[in-house]
Amino acid sequence: MVNIVITGANEGIGYYLTEKLLADGHHVAVLDLRMENLRPLECDFPDRLLCFPADVRSEAAMEEAVEKILERFGTVDIAVHNACLCPFQKEEETDLSVYRQVFDVNYYGALRLAKKVLPHMRAQRRGKILFTSSGVGVTGFVGIAPYASAKGALEALAKCLNLEYSGDGVTFHVIHPPLTRTKSSAPLPVPGEFMADPRKVGYGIAKYLFSRRFVICPSLGQKLQVLACYWMPVRMGKLLAKMTAGCPK
Fold first, then answer.
1. What is the pLDDT averaged over residues 96-115?
2. Mean pLDDT for the chain overall
């Protein structure tokens, strides 16, 4: 059993990922702005679930949380950055401040987490850091340029750090969930019935979390879709935009 840190797990994919990892016997520490949905899990797993109200935009909050996790668990074996911000609006209506806010959560939040756990992982000569990415970070999509840009930047960051720390026993990976029925995806012009169930996605990610592959997918179908996105990103981006154009909510 291992010790796992997850940002953004009070709801959605992160919540069900946490639930499954706890059920499988692992120790999990969650960093999130809100914790109300996690309270029942705290009661069920008082010795294996730690919850820290922490903003991934705050370096001090992240450092304090990681220090407390290490005091309690002793090690951090896996760290997952799942917290995200996804505004939905046309680029011409999107101020530069929105890009900064999104990158502060999605990209710099991931980098802050990595910087806080890396010294400990390097010292123990093992560790795994995963960033939740998205297909739109590869293909692009209409109306979510800040989010898609930040996810694309995460892809490059994970590749760079995976090479840089390959000799230290620390690996980096990206998680590619399908379009999932969550609060952040609610504004998208896609009917809810075409979105994946967050419980199924979270459980699927938990199943493959220990894979050595750089890209982690919760199912074979999602893996094939992601491969298509990497293979022909522009064509897939146009196809997805065309398929969802004019979709009734």
1. 97
2. 93
Using alpha carbons only, give the angle 211, 113, 18 rounded to the nearest 5 degrees.
Answer: 55
- pTM, to two decimals: 0.94
d(CA 176, CA 161): 18
CA distance 217 to 202: 10
Q: What does DSSP assign to residue 7?
A: E
- Strand order of the β-sheet with 49-53 is 49-53, 27-32, 3-7, 78-81, 127-132, 170-175, 215-216
> How far is the C-alpha of 69 from the C-alpha of 127, rounded, in Å?
15
- Residue in the structure block whose two tokens are 């019935």: 193
Burial 16-33 (b: 16+ CB within 10 A, else e): bbbbbbbeeebbbbbbbe
DSSP 8-state code for residue 197: P
Mean pLDDT of 212-235: 95
Q: How far apart are CA 77 and CA 4, in angstroms?
A: 6
Tens of pLDDT, residues 191-211 = 666 778 999 999 999 999 999
Q: N- to C-terminal Cα distance for the chain? A: 42
- Per DSSP, helices labelled H in 4-58 are 12-23, 39-44
Q: Which amino acid is at 135?
A: G
